[in-house]
Amino acid sequence: MQDSTPYAVGIDVGGTKTHLRAFADGAGVVDHVRSSTGWRPHDARAAADWLADLIAVALPSSPRPSALAVGGHACETARQCAGIRAALQERLGVPALVVGDAELLVPAAGLEKGVGLVAGTGSVAVGRLPGGEAVQVGGWGAVLGDEGGAAGLVREAA
């Protein structure tokens, strides 16, 4: 008899790699890492298809996810993330939450409140206002800013 315990699935789609973890009854049951090649967050349908294909490869055929949370690289606006969420929910038929990948920093640290700061290839600071509204500073790429990222630091040093 197959296990019918539903999976809660979390996916961190970064600029380089994607990490999927699935949990059942509070225990991790799948831990899958792959390249983020092909991730197209500016096309909601393509992003949803990419995520659904990832889930199909990473998870056993049964059971399917009961809920899904995604932090997506280059998911830059609430409207863009909502578009991916809607396409994903339509494709998989399960509740989904989609946010920018930098928004995963605070909960990944085990915190309910805080500011997440990325200072690497690019830079961005993200957080939430007391009412839950997301706020972001930076993260627009080297052409428009990213003063705390690699390109900005080299530009300032030169």
UniProtKB/TrEMBL annotation:
One function term, GO molecular function aspect? N-acetylglucosamine kinase activity
Q: Which domain of life is it from?
A: Bacteria
Q: Report the residue ranges that make up the ATPase BadF/BadG/BcrA/BcrD type domain in this protein.
A: 9-155
Q: Name one Pfam family in it.
A: BcrAD_BadFG
Q: What is this protein called?
A: ATPase
Instruction: Kindly list the organism's lineage.
Output: Bacteria, Bacillati, Actinomycetota, Actinomycetes, Kitasatosporales
